[in-house]
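stuck on this fold:
=====
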Amino acid sequence: MWIANNWKDYEVIDTSDGEKLERWGDYILRRPDPQVIWNTEKTNPLWKKYNGHYHRSKSGGGEWEGRNLPEEWQIGYGDLRFNLKPFSFKHTGLFPEQAVNWDWFGNIIRREIASGKRKKGEIKVLNLFAYTGGATLSALNAGAMVTHVDASKGMVGWAKENAAASALSDRPVRWLVDDCVKFVEREIRRGNKYDAIIMDPPSYGRGPKGETWKIEESIYPFIELTTNILSESPLFFLINSYTTGLQPAVLSYMMNMTIVSKFGGRVVSDEIGLPVKDTGLILPCGASGRWERVL
């Protein structure tokens, strides 16, 4: 398992009874987590001294019960800064477990630049289903040029705010509100190429014009499609999945059949997770598939 254990402003304190107890900077949150199927004793006093507690509704959705929880605050990861907000659907605008992937591809970008093969701003990275820009910021900070694509105008705006907070607004980046599949199709027709692709597809979603995305039906042909916009000598390809049916072995199989068959290289897939402070155990948080060029 790949573990995001380099955080200082975030931690999972404890887990029990379908919830995780977290510290986001100076604030303590209780949020639902479907992976937490155990019901262990809640001995940590912070279970009762939280700043925000998200409750699910039987009719769908949910709401926050807050105690001095601000409408917005920031946390940092290395040089990066992220604006957080309590969403009406339990999220805060950041998935901390993804930091382990940011570190991985950030190192690849820096290594390529340090080798002298490419200069800063020459490595073209495409970030699809890019959300609030955690991966975009990490790639920019490492020295890449990034095209950031998400179907939500609000999320793209949020990502721009995070870039500004991280002093990265002047880096080479394109912010695009678009359906990811249609964008890739147009890039193929335009002949545009990328040295790396990152994708974090939802289990289900709709594009700006109502386009439907169902991951089990759409992900394999979409990976096939994106291989057509990889450059002749690509650096890496990253797929993240929070869908139960897409286990690491499934990601590996798809990437081997589509990417390795064209470009060679190596695929490694695994679960990603976060350390739990009080137990010393690891909370699983989905899976990632990584392809990397092998020299």
About this structure: The chain has a mean pLDDT of 93.
